[in-house]
Inverse folding.
């Protein structure tokens, strides 16, 4: 039996979680104050994921950059591949919130979408 | 001179939510004055996610959160002026502002909501020794350069202060290819949210050195190296603990200060603890009809709470404009004790509040398994257990009107942290 200490990132409360594992199977999660903490802990020890936020260049807009995010979580290990893929992109204004900036980024099956109107 | 019922100074999250609330409570004549070229305030440069969990039940980025509120302002046709700087607010609610189109102009308001936000503590305010080369930025300045203007401030970075913006920028600079070597924090605990330490530092192996500060900056034209040292309980550097980092950039994330020059000129009384106005339960300052909300009032941890607070300010400003105010209502002072640094509001008028009143505050140190206790005079009213409380996160107590009514001769309310 082994335990892992985590800080939940499901919301800004940041609950301190203790995950107990046996043979790579999660047997219990304690310290969470909501069901999301439980789900986060189970996922974090088996398949950690993150939303990645970044910016890409825009031509002819009110700003030279537009902010963007992965529409869903992507595997934590792919974070740098995602930001690298965004570096080569330049969009033409106007860009609207929700517009797809790059589809299937880094082979994750997840789209990157704009988060600002520029 | 122009006339408006309500002038809101600042078009960030506080100003927008206050405007929407005031309109929904029946005020037609509203003007928002914003100095930047777009509405949304600092949220426009906060491109990370995590905003809006309480308000919209989903995780939004800063610009998305701002656009939701800006949309509500547009839908209600609330007037606003961009690129406009308020120069002065007088005690009788005359707002002097200027912009390129109108020049200098004055507005007589029936009520004013202060929503100017806060600014970062600068190097000058921190008394950091060493040379004064290029390459020293506040974390928020670096954030604006990277996220909105498309410039990278540097490649090898040291960050002083573990405020949320500093943590967010540690990740952001790393994702953009910079090497963030260390985050040094003077205090023995972080000033930022725990989740940001996990997501922004731990994820990328960036060390957080608590009880450390910068003791030297080298470089004449550009930053060349920064030396940090451990500090003792007196927060003075411990000789022999110095670590030197070669770097080209030093980011400062050492606290936020409410921006209250205008409040002061209007005669608004400020709290020495929060640096924000002292307000009553309606978020009204000592100047009749001048209200405050958001980071100009006290620095918040979550924008969701700013929006909630601003909606309260908007509603109360609307009530003031329509009904005036009962100056005879008795006000009871809230005394923060035993680890509670301050409360917002500071004064409660038991006859004037709605069914429930949210009192927000911060604690002065990290407390584990302690209680937040509320007393009316010497009677314990409520005791709530909190597993962890930290200075970086706001706490709150809800006061019930019905309970307050049971104490007609109440003289003081006390909120304090108590051990188990």
């Amino acid at each position: 039996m082994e335990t892992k200490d985590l800080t939940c990132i499901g919301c800004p409360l940041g609950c301190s979680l203790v995950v107990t594992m046996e043979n790579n199977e999660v047997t219990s999660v304690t310290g969470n104050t909501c069901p999301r903490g439980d789900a986060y802990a189970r996922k974090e020890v088996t398949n950690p994921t993150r939303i990645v936020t970044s910016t890409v260049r825009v031509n002819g807009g009110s700003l030279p950059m537009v902010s963007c995010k992965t529409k869903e979580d992507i595997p934590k290990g792919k974070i740098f591949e995602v930001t690298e893929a965004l570096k080569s992109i330049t969009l033409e204004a106007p860009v609207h919130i929700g517009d797809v900036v790059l589809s299937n980024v880094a082979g994750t099956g997840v789209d990157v979408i704009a988060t600002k109107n520029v | 001179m122009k006339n408006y019922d309500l002038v809101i100074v600042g078009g960030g999250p506080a100003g927008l939510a206050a405007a929407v609330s005031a309109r929904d409570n029946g005020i037609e004549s509203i003007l928002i004055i914003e100095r930047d070229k777009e509405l949304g305030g600092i949220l426009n440069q906060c491109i990370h996610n995590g905003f809006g969990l309480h308000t919209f039940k989903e995780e939004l980025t800063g610009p998305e959160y701002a656009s939701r509120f800006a949309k509500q302002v547009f839908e209600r046709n609330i007037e606003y002026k961009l690129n406009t700087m308020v120069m002065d607010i007088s005690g009788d609610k005359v707002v002097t502002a200027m912009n390129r189109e109108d020049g200098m102009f004055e507005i007589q308001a029936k009520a004013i909501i202060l929503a100017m936000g806060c600014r970062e503590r600068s190097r000058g305010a921190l008394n950091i020794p060493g040379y004064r080369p290029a390459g020293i930025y506040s974390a928020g300045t670096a954030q604006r350069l990277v996220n909105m203007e498309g410039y990278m401030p540097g490649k090898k970075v040291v960050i002083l202060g573990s405020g949320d913006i500093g943590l967010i920028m540690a990740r952001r600079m790393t994702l953009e290819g910079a090497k963030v070597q260390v985050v040094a924090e003077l205090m023995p605990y972080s000033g930022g949210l725990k989740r940001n330490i996990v997501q922004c530092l731990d994820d990328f192996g960036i060390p957080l050195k608590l009880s450390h500060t910068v003791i030297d900056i080298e470089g004449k034209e550009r930053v060349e190296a920064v030396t940090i040292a451990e500090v003792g309980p007196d927060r003075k550097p411990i000789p022999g603990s110095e670590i030197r980092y070669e770097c080209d950039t030093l980011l400062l994330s050492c606290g936020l200060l409410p921006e209250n020059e205008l409040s002061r000129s209007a005669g608004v009384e400020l709290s020495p603890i929060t640096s924000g106005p002292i307000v009553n339960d309606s978020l009204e300052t000592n100047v009749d009809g001048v209200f405050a909300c958001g980071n100009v009032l006290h620095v918040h941890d979550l924008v969701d709470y700013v929006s909630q607070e601003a909606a309260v300010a908007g509603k109360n400003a609307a009530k003031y404009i329509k009904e005036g105010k009962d100056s005879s209502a008795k006000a009871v002072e809230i005394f923060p004790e035993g680890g509670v640094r301050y409360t917002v509001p500071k004064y409660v008028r038991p006859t004037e509040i709605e069914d429930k009143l949210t009192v927000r505050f911060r604690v002065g140190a990290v407390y584990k398994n302690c209680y937040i206790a509320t007393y009316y005079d010497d009677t314990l009213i409520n005791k709530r257990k909190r597993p962890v409380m930290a200075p970086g996160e706001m706490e709150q107590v809800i006061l019930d009107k019905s309970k307050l009514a049971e104490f007609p001769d109440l003289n003081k309310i006390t909120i304090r942290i108590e051990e188990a």
